[in-house]
Structure formats: C-alpha cells, structure tokens
Amino acid sequence: MPNQIPWLILIIPFLSFVINALILRPFFPRQHKLAGYVTIGAIGIAFALSLWTLSAVTGSPEHKLDMESFSWLKIGNLNIEIGLLIDGLTSVMLVVVTLVSLMVQIYSQGYMHGDAGYIRYYSWMSLFTTFMLVLVTSNSLLFMYLGWEGVGLCSYLLIGFWFHGRPGAKPGDAVGLYAPANAAKKAFLVTRLGDVGFLLAILYLFSKTGTFNIEALGEAAAVKGGVLAGAAVTWAALGIFAGAAGKSAQFPLHVWLPDAMEGPTPVSALIHAATMVAAGVFLVARTMPIFMHSVEAATVVAIIGGFTAIFAASMGLVMNDIKRVIAYSTISQLGYMMVALGTGALAVAQGADAGKTQAALVGLAVTIGIFHLFNHAFFKALLFLGAGSVNHATGTFDMRLMGGLRKHLPWTSTTFLIAALSLAGIWPLAGFWSKDEILAQAWEHHRLVFFLALITVFMTAFYIFRVYFLTFGGKYRGGEAAAVHGPASIARPPSHSTVAERHEAARSHDVHPPTLHEAPGVMVAPMVVLSVLAVISGWFNLTGGFARLLGEEEAGHGIVSGLFGIFAHPLPWISLVLAGGGIFLAYAMYSKKWVSAEAVGRAFKPLYALFSHKYWLDEAYERGVVSLGLIGGFFRGLAFFDSKGVDGAVNGAAQGTAGAGRLLRRAQSGQLQLYGMAIVVGIIAVIVGVFIFGA
Amino acid sequence: MEFNFILSTIVFLPAVGAIIIALGRGLSPRGIKLAAALFTLLAFGLSLSAYFQFDSAPGGPLFQFREAASWLPSINSQYHLGVDGLSLPLVVLTTFLGIISVLISWKINLRPREYFAWLLLLETGILGVFTSLDLLLFFLFWEVELIPMYMLISIWGSGRKEYSATKFVVYTIFGSALMLVGMLALYASAGTFDIEALAGMNLATVHTVIPLAAIFFLIFMAFAIKLPVFPFHTWLPDAHTDAPTAVSVILAGVLLKMGGYGMIRISVTLFPTVAKEWAPLLVILAVGSVLYGAAVTLRQTDLKKLIAYSSVSHMGYVLLGIFALTQVSLTGAALQMVSHGVVTGLLFAMVGVVYDHSHLRDLSKLGGLARQMPVAAVVFSIAGMASLGLPGTSGFVAEFVTFVGSFTSKAFDGIQFYTILGVVGIAVTAGYILWMLQRTFYGPPQEKFAGVLDAGGVEKVAIFSFVVAIMLLGVYPAVVTGVLGAGIAPVVRLLGG
C-alpha cells in the first residue's frame, strides 16, 4: 500500500512530539541536545516522504492519490470519517511545510541554544508541525478543524514561550514581563473569533449536504439549483472566510500577528510567516469549489485582501522593530494571496472560462494564490531568520540601535538582501513572478483591488529596503548595550550566548566590548538554503508545471521564453519601476540621507501618527470593545445582577419563607421542618400551575 | 448471567464502606483512607466490568442487569434497578470520580472518619439515582444525597460554608418537593411508579389529575435547579466555592448530571409531547444559560468561583442538546454530561492543587506559578483547553455533536439561530479560560511562591487519570458513543422521529 505513505508524514512528527514531551522532558536535563536531533530527524523523514508524495502525485493521471478513510464517530445519521486528500495542492503544501520546518528546526539549535525551555521548545515545534500537516492533508472540514485549532494552540504556546517575561526582562518592566503571555492570549482569542465563523460554516454546510467531506461539498456546490444554490453558498463561503481571515491576519482581525512577534524568532519564521498564517489562504484555496460559485464571496475576499495588503504595508513603513516590519509585511503579502484567490474565484464565478472541467476551474482560480504562498514561504522565513541572526548578534530588535552590520554579518546580510529583493518583486527572483501574476489577474477582474495592490508594490519595496539600510548599512549604533547604558558604553557579549545570558551580560559593566559575530553554521546553513529557494522558487511555473499540478490546463512554454517573454507585457515594467522607485527612495532616505527621514515624518505628521499608532485599532478594540463595552459595562452589569438581582431575589424569598415559617411555628407551637415547609410551597405551586395551564 | 446483583453491589458497596469506616473504631486515619479507596476502587472496577458486558447492539435489551424486588406493594412501588446506554456511562463516571475524590482527599485530617463515611454515602446516593427504574426509589436516592452534601460542605468547607450548605439544601428540597408532588400526581393518574411502564403507556392519552404540562414542569423544576438552569443557578457558585475540593469535584462532576439525566430519563421519555411543545422556551433558556453563565464567569476573580460559574454555561449546552430533541443532539447532551464530568472534575481538582500549595485562590494575587508548578500548569492547561472545546479533547466532541444535532434539528423553526448563539459562547469560554490560566501560571515568578511545591504523588495519580479520560474521549469518542446511542435511540423513537 504505497499510497498510504502520506499517513506516515503525520505520524512521524507526532512521535517526535511524544518522545520530546513524555520521555526527554521528564527524564533528561532540560537543555539536552537530543530534543533537537529527534525533531530534525523526524521532520527530515517527513520532508523526504513529502517529496515522494509530490512526485507520486505529479506522476498520477489525475494528480491525486487514492487514500483510505475510516469511520471515527457514528451517531444516528451523523457519520464522521477521517481520511486524507492528497492532490497537487496538498503535496505542494506538504513540501513547503516540511521543508521550512526542517530549516527552522536546524536553525533553532543555534538560536535556542542554552534556553531553559529547549526541550519544551522542540516539543511544541514537533506538535505544531504535526497539526499543520493534518490541516493540509485532511479530506474533511472537520478533521481539518482539528489541525486548524491544533496549530492555533501551538501558536499560543510558542508566542507565550517566555511566559514568565522576555529573556532578561527586569523586575518592574511591566511590558517585558507580561507582553509574551498577553500576546499569546490575544492571538488565541482573535483567531477564535474567526473560528466561530468557520465552525458555523461547517455546521451550515453539514445541515445542507449531510457531509463534511471537502470534495463532496465541492460537488454539491457545483450542482445548478442544488442544496447550496443561491445565498447558501455565499453564507457558507463567508463563514469559512471569517476563519481564514482570523488565521491569516486579514483586516479587521489582523491585530494579533504583530504582537505575536513576542515568540522566539524561529517561531515567527515558521508559524507566523511561512505556514500557519498561510493556512487561511490554504483553506480558501481548498474550499475554492465553494467560493467560485459566489460572486459576492469572491468579491469580499478580493477586497479584504487588497485592503489588507495596503493597510498593513502602511504600518510597516514606520515601525522601528525589525520583526514588526516583517510581520506587517506578512499580513500585507497574505492580503496579496487573498487578492489572487478572490480574483481567481471571480474569474470563474463570472463565467470567464465556461466549458472547462471542475478541476481545471479550481486550478485556474487557486494557482496564482498558492504560487505566491509557495514563494512567500521561503523568502519570508528567510527574512525572519535573518532578523533572528541580527538579534543573536546585537541583542535587540530595535533598528535604531543597529546599522553597519553588513561588515560583521556577511552571510546574514547577503541572504537578507536576496530575500528583500525577492519580496520587493525584482526580476528574476521568486517574488517577482507570483506578484506579477496577481497584478495581472486583479487588473482583469477587479480594478479597484488592482490599484490597491499596485500601490502596495511601491510601499513594499520601500519598507523592506528601509529595514535593509537601517540594519546593515551605515554605522553600528550599539545594539542592546546602547539601550541599556546609552550609546557611550557599548558592551557586547559573546554572540554564542543564550538570549538570557546576553541580557545578563548587557546589564553587567564588566563585559569587555566584544566584536560582532556572524551566527554559527547551524544558523547560517538554513539561511543559505532558503536564499537559493528565494531566487529560484518562482521558476517552477515558468513552463506552467506548477499550474498543471494544481489542475489548470495551461499551455506550457520553454524556460527561456518564460523567463524573458514576460517583458512583452507592459505590466511587469510598471511594477518593476514602482519597486525600483521604492528601493531608491529608501536608499535616498536611509543610506545616503539625501532626504531626512525626520523631515518627511514632520511633513506627513498626521499620516505618520496614524501609521505608527496602528490606526489606534488595538486601543479601540481593547478599551472600547473589551474593557468598556463587554467586561467593564455589560458583563460587570450581569455579574452585579447575578449577585444582587437573581441571588438577592432568592435570598429574599428564603427570608420571607423563613419569616412565614416562624409565624406558623408560633401559631402551632410545634416543630415545622424545613421539609414540610417546602412541601407547602410545592402545593402552592401546584395550584398556581393548574391556573396557568388550565384544567 | 450468573451474578444478578451487580448493580445493587455497585450501588451499595460505598455505603457498606461508609458503615465500616463509621463503626470500625480501630481504624487509623490512614486505614480509613485505604478502606475508602478500596471500596470505591471495587465499585469502579465492577462498574467497568458491567460496562464491558453491556450489550449495545441495536435491538438488544434496553435495560440490562435488571433487579426487581417487591418493596411497597400497597402503592405498587418496586425496588427496581437497571441500566441502559444512557445511565451506564454515568454510573462509570460516578464510580470513577468516587475513587478520585478519595485520592484527592488524602490530606484531609479533620475528623477523617466522618468525612470519608459521608463521602462514600454520597456516592451511593448518586449511583442509586442513575440506576433506579422506579420513581419513588429514584426520589428516595435523590434525597439521600442531600445529607452527606450538607455535612461535607458545612463541616469541611471554607468561607461562608454554613450559608452555602443551607442554601444548597433549601434549593434542592424546594425542587424535590415539587418533584414529589409531580410524581404523586403521575401515580394518581397512571397507577404506577415504574418508569418503564410509564414510558410504555402514552401519557398524552391518559386522563391526568392535573394537566400533563403541569406534572412535567413540577418534575422538571427539580432537574432545572440541579442542572442548573438560569435563573435557578445561584446555589451553585456558593456551594462549589465553599465545598472541599473532593466535594466540588463530585458536585460538578456527577451531581449536576442528575439534573440532565432526569430530564432525559423522565421529562423527555415520559412526556415526549410536552417536551416537543415546550422545546422553544427551554432552548431559549439553554442558550440564555450558556451566554449568561459565560458572561458572569468572565467577571469572577476567585479561581473556584470562576470554574463554578463556567459550569452554568457548560450545562446550558446539555439543555440545548436535550431539547433540540434529535438522536444526535441528545447524544451530544449525554456526551457533554460525561465530558463535563471529567473536565470540570479535573478543573476543580487543579484548583485544589493550586490552593493547597499556594493557599491562594484570588486571581489578582496569583501569577507566575508555572515555574514552581510545571506539572500543575500543564494539566490545568489541558483541562482548560478541554473546557474551551479544543479538538482532540472530550469537550470538543461533546460540544460539536451537540451543535450538529441542534443545528440540524427540526424541533421548531429558528433553532438554528439559537444554536448560532450557543456557538458564539465558545469564544467567550476561550476568553475566561485563557485569562484564568494566564493569571495563575504566567507572568513573572513571585518571591512569595518560592517554596511552593508541584503536584505530588497521590495528586498526580488522580489528575493524570483525568487527563487520560479527557484524551481518550476526545480522540476515540466511539468508546462511549456506541453505548450512549443505544440508550438514546428508544427516547428518540418515543419522540416520533
């Protein structure tokens, strides 16, 4: 049964979790290296099996493996089966998830070296990978929901990894001590709001069709005048999209992702850049047979995506924390993917390609979005790993304390530059290809969204090269030590220390000013691998191979004509000019300083304030909705009502009864038991009941 | 079957243990605890063996392990025991919590003889409720449970313990009185107390002394107070908060389930027409309990009170499942009873662990305890995740099945809308659970907790058993759904659908 091999891809990382959590954690020293080896070994095997799966799927006639299902729960007419759906989309996701995870686990050996929670870290990372793989392989929405909530749990645990406070946070540092735990809770709750919509959509679809199976739901949606015709498919799609928007941090549920940067940086690279946040995009792609039958839902996806793209990019322009800029970039790029899926669904829903098979239509709608997800996973994970390496060297994430790192961190700065160019969409790097296709598709099917996406191209290039020049260009501004002691006393701990030790050292005046070191080999190697992918991953679709794998029947062309033929169209020229302009502006402002960034900030003061305060949305949510509206006002009122109103009435009645009892007792001068008293009450109730219900 | 008294043995084993402990003057405190553990363990083992012998194949006998003996022939009341697919899992749950509650009482040193005697007697009372097939016997066991509860809360409790104990008793007796009147009215109309016989005759066609709906509500009131349903819930936070840990575990774990069990066994089974007619009102009350309970829970700052209020919310799902009146929804409600039994049992056990070690329950004073209590933090988190319905735990299966059942129900128009409101409740649940975990375990470690120890040997046995049960039900719910389904199917047939 070679076809059942994909089950192993789920089981092996889970075994790694079991070994880490139930054997290594209780019975080995807390920082034992074995945890990393076990995890890397397990995920390495999963990666190899994923490659096998990809080739098996590519080689099979319908790009799909026959998988067996089994019954999990049977109650009356409810029969829930668990099974895998291994097709082109899934096999691409399997490779992305296991490859990025493998790189991140290798890198983490260096980054998490010496952390007291080393084994705990690898336990959660293994569990995360397991749930992520469940999510992408499931053939039913319900089993997918298991993976969906599971990755959410692991995200919660890893954002709050330093739940006692950031490493080295000092007593009294209210932000540093509580931020990780708060961020974790916020992430879980905001995504759960979206999940309510997803769960309702699952229930709704089941009530209409009697199945959770994704393919069966797709077939039901395709039936003209069927159970899902008309508004039903739109409601279902919007419910699903609510879940997707929560997970993929789309407006207005985006607020959790920037805060999620409190987690260790490799976590940000894997979970909050490459895989889990892309799960929302994957979900929409997976349920594309539903979305593509609703013009309304497709339009909502496209507009939310386009708006999120430009909205998040605007905040990325002004952040000083390197991870936060990249986080806003992630939100923005996920918006691009939603644009791709929304306009793809619109293309089908408007009947642009009538006459094709269902599989071909789905392929047409999802290819571009998933292609961008694929490219983005590599260059964005690389950006985060680069940020982690910078932090490893300087002890800070604040770009105002960095600068001049190009000399000291040659590998990091070079790979970061490649990733930045890829993100900015410079030919012929990966990001260029998918972004160009998104713009072309948006132009055809939704002009407003097209212009939002086009402006974002400029902003993207600007903010990422602002990061690049601030971090790697110019002169070193002292790192963490400068923040602690002021720029005058620059103290540098050895770079191979733990985060906690570094902070400890930074506080100590005895440390000699050391030199900035490049990260160790285990951290550099994964960055190099990812930087190669950040260049070439875009080439997989030059001959249309990626599109064919996902079902689209696109006419292929040669590599050379694919590589250069693109310039026969005007659009790539426009986007390249915009991206180049963004890079040049960043160069002018942050490298050459021909234009003063402060002067620009003053000139656009209201805008600057708006962006840097994140449109005051966090405050609005927290103070307005949560504190005043719900907890402070309504819920507090209910709690008061409960203790004084409901309970008060009961106590009042009890006192009244007791008083009556005392009177009766006096009248009869005998013992009246509580019991008998209650029976009297009961009989009164009977009489009342007779009156109410009629005889 | 060669051994015909297995149910009586299970029911009365704890009572025998209670008598031996009460009269065995020579027993040391340790001996008392060992004796209590032995008797509850035997009861648990026997109930498990009954569970595995139970025949849940379709078309099999409904009530099994039946025992009938003449009791009060003058009023046609029998000593009639038996279990079906609905009650048997609850019997197992009760005996499971029985042994656990003994284990987590290991440190009780105040009058241990009386404490363990009352604790075991309490178990017998609850087991009797779940196994009685005669209304009068049912009522008798329903009342038996009161006295031990009163004693356990008022002597071994904390805070305003006498107030809480009295409140609990008055509330329950108020409900019981109404129930007794209802049962007498039923007897006066139908001439029997036998539940099977009553279910077999269509009460809607019987001339009743007072309207059928009035009988229904008289009996229902007792269950609504027990479950509890808003606005009859205010005894619960007080009783839970002031009860000793083991009693809170039993109270939340199985005592509340007597209400849900009664609703299915008596309210729905004997009065299907009334249940259908009044379903809209009761479903609204259910969703009200869910949302109101969750909202009030969010405002609690006492760890124990927080968990107590969360029960109001979670029991709302039971009511929703019952009065959505479908096979799936009723199974979901029964699953939720079992699941809530272990999940909230564990939550209260964990509150006990935290309180025993830190001497604090006030969330504004706790914090950072994960450093000192890593095992407790993990187990508490697992219980919390199950409570907020994370897939892979029993809580998710129970809530999801309930939602599927009520969303696809045709009990009345608009039930989908109420189901949606119920689903919204899970977001609020996540809010208070995560807030509670954060306030207890996260944040900077505090100096005042420097010497606090993690959960110890006996505690670990108890809490890990809960974790295994939660995971087993969450990953492989078929271990219980097959049996529950066998009990629910006949009820659904009575409803005519």
Q: How does this model look, in words?
A:
With 695 residues, chain A is mainly alpha-helical. Chain A is built from 29 helices and 4 strands. Chain A has helices at residues 5-27, 34-59, 88-111, 118-137, 141-159, 174-209, 214-222, 231-247, 256-259, 265-274, 279-286, 288-291, 295-316, 322-349, 358-394, 405-408, 410-424, 430-445, 447-472, 479-485, 499-507, 521-536, 545-549, 559-565, 571-591, 597-603, 605-612, 617-668, 674-693; strands spanning 64-65, 70-75, 78-82, 86-87. In chain A, the strands form 2 sheets. In chain A, strands 1-4 form a two-stranded antiparallel ribbon. Chain A is globular. Chain B has 497 residues and is mainly alpha-helical. Chain B has a domain at 279-497. Chain B has 19 helices and 2 strands. A two-stranded antiparallel sheet of chain B has the order 1-2. The interface between A and B is large, with 65 and 73 residues.
Entry keywords:
heterodimer; A: 695 residues; mainly alpha; two-stranded antiparallel sheet; two-stranded antiparallel ribbon; 29 helices; 72% helix; B: 497 residues; 19 helices; 2 strands
Regarding quaternary structure, what we see is heterodimer
Rounded average pLDDT of chain A: 84
- By secondary-structure content and strand pairing, the structural class of chain A works out as mainly alpha
Helix content of chain A: over 70%
Largest interface: A-B, 65 and 73 residues
The number of distinct helices of chain B, counting runs of at least 4 residues, comes to: 19
Percent of sequence in beta strands of chain B: under 5%
| Share of helix of chain B, binned | over 70%
Number of strands of chain B: 2
Shape of chain A: globular
Calculate the terminal CA-CA distance of chain A, rounded to whole Å.
71 Å
Rg of chain B (CA only): 21 Å
**Major beta sheet summary of chain A:** 2 strands, antiparallel
Structural class of chain B: mainly alpha
| Percentage beta strand of chain A | under 5%
Distance between the termini of chain B: 34 Å
Unreliable stretches of chain B (pLDDT < 50, length at least 5) are none
Read across the widest sheet of chain B, the strand sequence of neighbours is 1-2
- Rg measurement of chain A, Å: 29 Å
